[in-house]
TrEMBL record:
Pfam families: Glyoxalase (PF00903)
UniProt-listed InterPro entries: Glyas_Bleomycin-R_OHBP_Dase (IPR029068), Glyas_Fos-R_dOase_dom (IPR004360)
Gene3D superfamilies attached to this UniProt entry: 2,3-Dihydroxybiphenyl 1,2-Dioxygenase, domain 1
SUPFAM superfamilies listed in its UniProt record: Glyoxalase/Bleomycin resistance protein/Dihydroxybiphenyl dioxygenase
Name under which the protein is recorded: Glyoxalase/fosfomycin resistance/dioxygenase domain-containing protein
Domain Glyoxalase/fosfomycin resistance/dioxygenase: 8-47
Length: 74
């Protein structure tokens, strides 16, 4: 193994201001913004451990990556 990262599918980051954070990461990665969307329900409850929580999520797709188009439909 070469010690280099080949692909990172996604990273979850909890932030206080999603709009400000999206602007930062779009600028940093020179990427395209997708979202934000609200998600809730049994799966989100199970993943977060907080029943009834509403999660706001978004993606920044860096140049050359095309997974966010598909992930946004999740």
């Amino acid at each position: 193994m070469s010690g280099q990262v080949g692909v990172i599918h996604h990273v979850g980051i909890t932030v206080g201001d999603i709009e400000r954070s999206l602007a930062f990461y779009v600028d940093l990665l020179a990427g395209r913004r997708f979202g934000p969307w609200r998600r809730s329900g049994p799966r989100v409850d199970a993943v977060t451990g907080y029943p009834g929580v509403v999660v706001h999520r978004a993606f920044v797709d860096p140049p050359g990556a095309h997974w966010a188009d598909k992930a946004s439909k999740c």
